[in-house]
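Loading example: each entry is read as two labelled lines plus one structure line.
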Amino acid sequence: MSVPDSPTHLSGMRARNLVLVLDAIDRHQPVTRARLAELTGLTKTTVSAQVTQLSALGVVADAEPVKDGGRGRPGAPVSVAPGPVAALGLEVNGHYLAACVADLTRAVRVRRVLVRDNLGAAPAETIDALGRLAREVVSEAAEAGLRPVGAVAALPGVVDQTTGTVSAPNLGWHEQSVAGLLRAALPAGIPLVGVDNEANLAALGELWFGAGADFGDYIQVSGETGIGAGIVVSGELFRGAHGSAGEIGHVVVDPNGPPCQCGGHGCLEQVAGQAVLMRAAGLDDTAADDDPVAGLLRLLDAGDARAHAAVERAGHGLGTALVAAVNLLDPDTVVLSGVHAALAPWLIPHAASALEHGGSRIRGGSPAIRTSGLARGAAVLGAAGLVVARVFADPLGLAA
Amino acid sequence: MSVPDSPTHLSGMRARNLVLVLDAIDRHQPVTRARLAELTGLTKTTVSAQVTQLSALGVVADAEPVKDGGRGRPGAPVSVAPGPVAALGLEVNGHYLAACVADLTRAVRVRRVLVRDNLGAAPAETIDALGRLAREVVSEAAEAGLRPVGAVAALPGVVDQTTGTVSAPNLGWHEQSVAGLLRAALPAGIPLVGVDNEANLAALGELWFGAGADFGDYIQVSGETGIGAGIVVSGELFRGAHGSAGEIGHVVVDPNGPPCQCGGHGCLEQVAGQAVLMRAAGLDDTAADDDPVAGLLRLLDAGDARAHAAVERAGHGLGTALVAAVNLLDPDTVVLSGVHAALAPWLIPHAASALEHGGSRIRGGSPAIRTSGLARGAAVLGAAGLVVARVFADPLGLAA
């Protein structure tokens, strides 16, 4: 329908232009106003007005003048501002809590991990502890002049985006409402802008803070006590119809295998999850430990037969699940994060062999299996990154 | 970069407007020029010029005048033209060849199936026979005033869209170049606009000619001698990084199962593919038969224990592969087509039970398993539909 240029219509157009200019600054920074006009097709006057507004919001700032390729006088470039506007990322894991503050340039400015056994703890208690950790990092960030304008929390379970409930059997959470608890626990003045699955946010963490941009389309397997995957297609997260795509932990890898909390038998989690792996190697997984796989790595280094058998079984199961994922999704790359990244040198040969035997003759090869350099920190970074993405998508909404 | 209104720029803009107007006609037909101007935001003069051009191309035509909701004088509506511009769909299956001509309203106007054993036949011979069938339907379509402006072929294998080669182990084709053979076999004047996987085109056939629009995001399993799946997300086919997404036939459902031509063991195809199913039920799958599953259906109706055991095993395997597909992709609906559609009443209970046991407690339920009403005709319709989509995306390119 054609609409006259009413004030409402104009303000919608201005908001869209603001996003357009901010996106161009993010991609091409440092960038002059003249170049921004070329990139966006907007007039220089419009660009200048938008830059002024973004500057007032604390989202962009003047950068050092740069020579324009030697072709003339130095321009007056702008960049995304490394403050005061910032993002708060939070994570609940079975064995730790994490919080970080990143600025809009996606630099991680403050980060804390609290080792804590959350398996079976009451949700309210766990989220209270997460809130205390959040207040610590926010207060530390304030000293650096940073003001988080929103928070996203990563949880190790299926997050139903319609009802806002979380099912995380490994934590003992069943259709748990979390938004209210999180809002109450967050430092004053920081809105909760999202709750998402740990594996989804780990894949986005890799995309924004790690090597994800070089991986093409990728499946990132996040191995913890539970196992999930984040699926990145054309630089975006593939979420499925109800937000629960990527549940690779419940792909059946051994139909005669042990029962799983999901109702199935022989799910990947029951073969390659952290707790199962540790027990199979003869180790105790219940004690909260700063690095729960350190003991397993020591046994592997020492050539312990039981540890090697456990890892071989896990690697083979992982490869079998990857056969399903690769045949169904056809990615460029498979990325391992979480405990599987720590165990990569031992796991990958077994997983790659199983993957190579499954359908690769038809596909003409198998995707490379890579390791996340962010290891266990990917999800909390992805959570902060999602806040940054929200600021870029709606600077007037969050940053103001 | 801002570009002056050069003639090239203007012609690009006109081509975009032409697509915009045609798309609005397709969605809202019959529709008046005045309403088209509202829908597209273009001026009435521009819309009239575009409609005149589309009319000259044979792509749209005047429809019966309709009263505009009683609000005034009758408008002068246009609709997509049911001719002369048309689309040729082709399909090679292990047991038959198919060809059809559809018009741009997606009405199937001519359709022929030739029962023929293509398993192990030389590719050139098979494609020659397909060419003869194509000439028959094109000549029959010409009598109805239809002129196919392009052809798409559905093949039962992995189509590498970069190299244009097809690997279809069940046909005995290995990295076979097919474009040249197809071009030589096609009736004169009909360009080959695409070659695609049978399962992908079956899913698109369901979307455009069947009930796909009601299925939300869906995975359509195409059961033949091989088994593939087409993945439809937000009304578009999900193809993966190299065009081979949806290879559900090589998801491992029984790690100790029989070897598969793909290099794996216990792939879904080895448990639920047509040839395996027939043999397990004690039937001969080698004879080309007008309806190869008719014999199996008779045995099932008669309560034959061996036939029921074969279908139970296939259904359970299908359900196990669907656990992987549903956990990874999170669709609204699973659709069965091909032989699995014919066997649906016997297969679905077993498949649904296996699916229900795999991860459904975490997901909060399982997607419905539906049956394609197009059964074995879906892929050839999807092939014709892809030509129609190409005409709508570039009316000046194909229809002219």
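Chain A has 15 helices and 16 strands.
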